């Protein structure tokens, strides 16, 4: 894992190279944590770790915006739908929440809200406060009062269709009584009480659940609704999505309306009129936490006035009008038996602590992440001491903590109980899987195996990524099958191209495979058909499936839309590889778009594509073994050109806007948010690519430059007309 943020250098003390390395490391870790928690119901880091890592990543991206990865997990919600369920596209995105950990954080939230809305300091700003339930988010769609669809949050845009399962939950009405909007999406949390959880784990349920949250998630996401019906699930309603008509004018009244329609709402919800009232409510709820009978991990504050909520709108993943104020973590001491090194898809060597099982906050845990070699040694990646320089060794008694119901991390060491013969842990300089040199690049906190595809751990993980749901998504070829084929000398899959060679009808592989354990003739036929079906693949999916470091789903889509075809993309990458910006021996020089490097400049100049990503992309395509493997794969595919996916068109969709001067009837932040919601890009300076300048009083040099470049200029009244608020 990445080093704990509290043990790192302050963001303002980092140089560019250190920041780039830390952003890359944290992005990968947070994305993996999202997938484990939301898709697999199997979290491997604590909520406190996750929150701290994400907060640190946000701070780094704010300080170094040019280094932010286009597919950063700070711009995503949850994870994609799991296999086995139909997909549901949410009419309105299901968002996550920004987090607060201190009273100062809450005060800053209130200040931001007031500033965005341009509210004087003495204006009353009411907030609701309610317990943050630790369960599984669910959206229920009613049409003419009938429950027609239930969907999990998924990645916020697309979730899993669990309608049949939701109908078995007693606290979810299948039909609503009284006056109901024609379309009503009710959103809330599926959870399990502590008493029901203990009863479930005492039965022969086929598995032992680690905690109530996992039990609730696993129970709702059963392929057979009959299994769900036997599980004691509950539901709290607290929000809504698409509506054909408003429920009320305030958050509190809307929740009360949901209660009148038959939904369970949390009785601890309160209306607060000041910061002291909010903190007092948070304190009261925390004091009741142990006696509630269900898990909560904080308090959620929401702006009560729904017209204010509409004006505040959303960031990429979170509403501006809501905040989760988290509770502190829980701790315990146990013995660290051994330290193991795992090798990931990008070659990262990740240390894992194997612990003597210990109960922390009611959950038994036996594993914890150790971040990296610096953390084990008791220093940060700049060499400064952490834990007062105390290192971590096998046999140590260590302090672990958890927040929420997940596997903890190690926070400290008890030196008084350290065995007399203990030795410092020697972090390997060779890959434990393939023996290749494991190097740590300057500014990077992670040591990586240099073996590439000759390293079986990397090769297997890359293949698992290749067949994953957001990539090629080959039905019947998952992680377990990849491991089997990789180890099979007769039917090996060692690189992506081998998958399509396996399915060739004239290869004789059908006859070889159909008698293997787990395969019959029909299942082999289905597998081969699924592979054949993926010979035609969209450009964005292919690029993401290659597993190139820093090139995630969002960046893959951005590159695909920019270049349109595989050939055009490869031509730009190959062109960049021949240019001075890439040919420079100094990696730092590669991060500057030189005037005589048009291909490099084009790649770096794509909105949302940074130089670190381009460097990784060009490096991968320039390595002979990697390139030959990519070429072998593409030779067996038909790569479909990219198409625009923008669904809603406005008169400023796709245009670049610049705001200047003083806006008198809308704050600058509100104007920017409105423009982006309408499909426009908002830039900070005028250039030849600017389509429209919105100029208020005091426009100054930007208006002059716009006139020189022939850029259209409008005033605030015309902008309000375009924005639909004039």
Question: Would you spell out the secondary-structure blueprint of this structure?
Answer:
Blueprint: H1 16-39, H2 47-63, E1 87-89, E2 99-100, H3 103-117, E3 127-133, E4 136-143, E5 146-152, E6 158-160, H4 163-166, E7 183-191, H5 194-202, H6 212-220, H7 225-229, E8 234-243, H8 251-260, E9 270-272, H9 275-288, E10 296-303, H10 306-312, E11 322-326, E12 330-343, E13 349-360, E14 363-369, H11 373-377, E15 397-402, E16 409-413, E17 438-439, E18 448-449, H12 456-466, H13 479-487, H14 496-502, H15 509-513, H16 521-533, E19 536-538, H17 539-545, H18 553-563, H19 566-577, H20 580-583, H21 598-605, H22 611-622, H23 624-634, E20 638-640, E21 656-660, H24 668-677, E22 681-683, E23 692-695, H25 701-709, E24 712-714, H26 716-723
Parallel strand pairs: 2-11, 19-20, 21-22, 21-23, 23-24
Antiparallel strand pairs: 1-6, 3-9, 3-10, 4-5, 4-7, 7-8, 10-11, 12-13, 12-15, 13-14, 15-16, 17-18
Write a structural description.
This protein is α+β, with helices and mostly antiparallel strands and 726 residues long. The chain folds into four domains: 5-76 and 329-417, OB fold (Dihydrolipoamide Acetyltransferase, E2P); 87-326, 2-Layer Sandwich (D-amino Acid Aminotransferase, Chain A, domain 1), CATH 3.30.470; 539-640, DNA polymerase, domain 1 (Orthogonal Bundle); 656-723, BRCT domain (Rossmann fold). The chain is 35% helix and 18% strand. The strands form seven sheets. A five-stranded mixed beta sheet has the order 2-11-10-3-9. Strands 14-13-12-15-16 form a five-stranded antiparallel beta sheet, with helices on one face. The protein has a four-stranded antiparallel beta sheet with strand order 5-4-7-8. The chain starts with 15 loop residues before the first helix and ends with a helix.
């Amino acid at each position: 894992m990445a080093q704990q943020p509290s043990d790192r250098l302050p963001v303002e003390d980092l140089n560019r190279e250190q920041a780039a390395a830390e952003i890359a490391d944290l992005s990968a870790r947070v994305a993996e944590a999202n997938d484990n928690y939301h898709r697999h119901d199997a979290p491997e880091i604590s909520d406190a770790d996750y929150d701290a890592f994400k907060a640190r990543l946000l701070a780094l991206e704010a300080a170094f915006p040019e280094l932010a990865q286009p597919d950063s997990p700070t711009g995503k919600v949850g994870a994609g739908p799991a296999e086995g369920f139909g997909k549901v596209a949410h009419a309105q995105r299901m968002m996550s929440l920004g987090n607060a950990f201190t009273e100062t954080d809450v005060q800053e939230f209130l200040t931001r809200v007031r500033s965005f809305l341009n509210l004087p300091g003495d204006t009353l700003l009411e907030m609701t406060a309610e317990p943050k339930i630790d369960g599984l988010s669910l959206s229920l769609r009613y049409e003419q009062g009938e429950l027609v669809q239930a969907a999990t949050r998924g990645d916020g845009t697309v979730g899993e269709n669990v309608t049949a399962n939701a109908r078995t939950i007693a606290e979810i009405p299948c039909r609503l009584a009284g006056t109901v909007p024609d379309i009503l999406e009710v959103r809330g949390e599926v959870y399990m009480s502590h008493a029901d959880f203990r009863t479930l784990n005492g039965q022969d349920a086929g598995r032992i659940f680690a905690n109530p949250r996992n039990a609730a998630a696993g129970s709702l996401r059963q392929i057979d609704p009959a299994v769900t019906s036997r599980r004691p699930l509950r539901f709290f309603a607290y929000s809504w999505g698409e509506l054909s008509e408003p429920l009320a004018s305030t958050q509190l009244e809307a929740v009360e309306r949901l209660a009148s329609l038959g939904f369970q709402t949390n009785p601890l919800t309160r209306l607060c009129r000041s910061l002291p009232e909010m903190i007092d409510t948070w304190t009261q709820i925390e004091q009741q936490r142990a006696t509630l009978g269900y898990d909560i991990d904080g308090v959620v504050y929401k702006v009560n006035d729904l017209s204010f909520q509409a004006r505040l709108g959303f960031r990429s993943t979170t509403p501006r009008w809501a905040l989760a104020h988290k509770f502190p973590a829980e701790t315990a001491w146990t013995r660290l038996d051994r330290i193991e090194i795992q090798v990931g898809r990008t070659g990262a060597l990740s240390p894992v602590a194997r612990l003597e099982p210990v109960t922390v906050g009611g959950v038994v845990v036996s594993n914890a992440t150790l971040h990296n070699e610096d953390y084990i040694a008791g220093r940060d990646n700049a060499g400064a001491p952490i834990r007062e320089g105390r290192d971590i060794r096998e046999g140590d008694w260590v302090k672990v903590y958890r927040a929420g119901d997940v596997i903890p991390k190690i926070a400290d060491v008890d030196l008084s109980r350290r065995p007399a013969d203990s030795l410092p842990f020697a972090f390997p300089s060779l890959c434990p899987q393939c023996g290749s040199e494991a190097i740590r690049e300057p500014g990077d906190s992670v040591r990586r195996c240099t073996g590439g595809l000759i390293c079986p751990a990397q090769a297997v993980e890359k293949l698992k990524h290749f067949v994953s749901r957001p990539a090629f998504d080959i039905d019947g070829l998952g992680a377990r099958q990849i491991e089997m084929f990789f180890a099979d000398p007769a039917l090996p899959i060692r690189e992506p191209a081998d998958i399509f060679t396996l399915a060739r009808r004239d290869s004789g592989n059908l006859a070889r495979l159909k008698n293997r354990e787990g395969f019959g003739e029909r299942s082999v036929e289905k597998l081969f058909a699924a592979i054949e079906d993926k010979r035609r693949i969209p450009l964005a999916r292919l690029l993401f499936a290659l597993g190139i470091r820093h090139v995630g789903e969002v960046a893959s889509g951005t590159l695909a839309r920019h270049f349109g075809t595989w050939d055009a993309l490869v031509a730009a990458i190959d062109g960049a590889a021949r240019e001075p910006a890439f040919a420079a021996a100094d990696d730092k020089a590669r991060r500057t778009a030189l005037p005589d490097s048009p291909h490099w400049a084009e790649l770096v100049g794509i909105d949302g594509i940074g130089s670190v990503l381009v460097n990784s992309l060009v490096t991968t395509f320039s390595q002979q073994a990697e390139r030959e493997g990519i070429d072998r794969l593409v030779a067996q595919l038909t790569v479909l050109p990219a198409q625009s996916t923008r669904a809603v068109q406005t008169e400023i969709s796709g245009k670049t806007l610049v705001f200047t001067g003083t806006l008198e009837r809308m704050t600058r932040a509100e104007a920017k948010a409105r423009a982006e919601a309408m499909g426009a890009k908002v830039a900070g300076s005028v250039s030849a690519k600017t389509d429209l300048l919105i100029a208020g009083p005091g426009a100054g040099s930007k208006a002059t430059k716009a006139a020189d470049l022939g850029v259209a200029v409008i005033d605030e009244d015309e902008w309000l007309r375009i924005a639909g608020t004039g």
